[in-house]
Each structure stands twice: as structure tokens, then as C-alpha cells.
Design brief:
243 residues, mainly alpha, Tetracycline Repressor, domain 2, 10 helices, 63% helix, elongated, disordered C terminus
């Protein structure tokens, strides 16, 4: 029933979807519907609950894997990024793998995102997307602060601003997915996301600026015109004849 409901909500929005169309699509009677849900809004709430549960499960595994990495490999410093150490490369691979899993999840729920963005006006769910977004921002910011406390991230960075950038990117990408007819190369997307963030959150490494040799300025010679003065016309003297 949940899959049939998702398809109906994606086609007609939450207000336009009808219970009888949902039950007909999955071979149930309208009476059977009310044995499970009190309304179509309750059904949509269940769809959203599963989406959030999957999202939180992936995010929870991601943070646990990152903490295990730091526990086993040690906290990375800026030299790890600069020298692309083995533990840094493993960390990048770990992050990229979870970016890919998150993008795959967003792709599988792109119909739900579409309903939240443009099919929930006039319902109790019309502002839910932004509530979910804010909750994810707080979660990512909390995880980032833990990394800052461990010395694995730049402590001068604003955790909530960083989280807003990351979550905002996912929201925009999920909205883009709604309009795509074919599934994009998620591995390329995950690689691009990781490249954008790679090294940017690690502790700073203040490399002294290269000392450049002083530039000796040459005294400019006064510029003179290279044009030659016009030659005077030679006058031909014709001797006078004697009388």
C-alpha cells in the first residue's frame, strides 16, 4: 500500500490523491484501508517516517564509522591532507562511500521530496521539508562539533554554517533528481561532493608564503622619438650662362 500511495501522491499531490485510487492500485478495498490508517494524511506520515528512519540510520552508521576510523587510525592532522597519507585516503574513501549511499537513498525517495516541495500546500505537511532540513542541519552540526573537539576538524569553522551548506546541497540535489528522467551517475556525484569538501574542514596548516626575490626596477630612459627628421630637399644650382 505504501508504494501505491507514493505513486498516487507523486502524481496528484497530497490534496489531489484519493484513497479509493490508492486501494485500487494495490488490490484492496477502501474499508481495508481504514484498518491500517485513519486518513491519507496518516498514510503519508508513515511514508515520511520511513524516509526519516532510513536517513537517520545511514547518518548514524556514517558517524559511527568515522569515529571507528579515528579510534583505529588516529586523528588526522593537516599534514595527512597535505601528504595524502594512507589513513587520509581511507577516510576519503569512507566518506565517499557514505555520500554515495545517501544519494542513492535520496534518489529512491525523490517522489516523496517532490510531494513535500510542491504537492503539500494547504496541508499540515507544507512546511515539513524545512523542519526536516533544520533537524538535519542540527544533527550534522553536532557531529561536526564532535570532530572539532577531537581535533579532526578546523576549530575556527562555524559548525552550523558548515552543516547548512552540506544539507542544503543535498536538498537541492534531491529537487534536481525529481526532474531527471534517467538516473544520473551517482558515483560521479558522490566524488564531486567529496572533492568539494576534501581537506576544507581539516585543521589548518599554515604554510609560510614563499619569499620572492625583490624585483630590481630598471630606471626608465627617457623615450625619444625614433623618427628621423625629414630630409631637406636638395636645391640644384644651375650655372648662369655668360653673356
Amino acid at each position: 500500500m505504501l508504494n501505491a500511495a507514493r505513486a498516487e501522491f507523486a502524481r496528484k499531490g497530497l490534496r489531489g490523491a484519493r484513497i479509493e485510487d490508492i486501494t485500487a492500485a494495490c488490490g484492496l478495498s477502501k474499508g481495508a484501508f481504514y484498518l491500517h490508517f485513519s486518513s491519507k494524511e496518516a498514510l503519508f506520515g508513515e511514508v515520511l517516517a520511513r524516509f526519516e528512519a532510513h536517513l537517520n540510520e545511514v547518518n548514524g552508521r556514517r558517524m559511527a564509522a568515522v569515529e571507528r576510523h579515528f579510534l583505529g587510525q588516529g586523528v588526522m592532522g593537516s599534514r595527512d591532507r597535505l601528504e595524502r597519507s594512507e589513513r587520509y585516503r581511507r577516510f576519503v574513501e569512507l566518506e565517499t562511500a557514505f555520500d554515495l549511499e545517501s544519494l542513492e537513498l535520496m534518489w529512491s525517495y525523490r517522489d516523496v521530496v517532490s510531494v513535500l516541495v510542491s504537492g503539500s500546500q494547504g496541508t499540515p505537511f507544507e512546511s515539513l521539508l524545512w523542519q526536516m532540513t533544520e533537524a538535519q542541519v542540527e544533527r550534522v552540526a553536532g557531529d561536526f562539533r564532535r570532530m572539532q573537539s577531537a581535533g579532526a576538524a578546523d576549530q575556527e569553522m562555524d559548525a552550523k554554517l558548515f552543516a547548512s551548506v552540506i544539507v542544503g546541497a543535498y536538498v537541492l540535489l534531491s529537487q534536481r533528481m525529481v526532474h531527471l528522467k534517467e538516473k544520473p551517475d551517482m558515483s560521479a556525484w558522490a566524488y564531486t561532493l567529496q572533492r568539494l569538501c576534501e581537506g576544507g574542514t581539516l585543521p589548518r596548516f599554515d604554510v609560510p608564503a614563499p619569499v620572492s626575490e625583490p624585483v630590481v626596477s630598471r630606471a626608465k630612459r627617457p623615450t625619444t622619438s625614433q623618427r628621423r627628421p625629414p630630409a631637406r630637399a636638395k636645391t640644384r644650382h644651375t650655372p648662369r650662362k655668360s653673356p
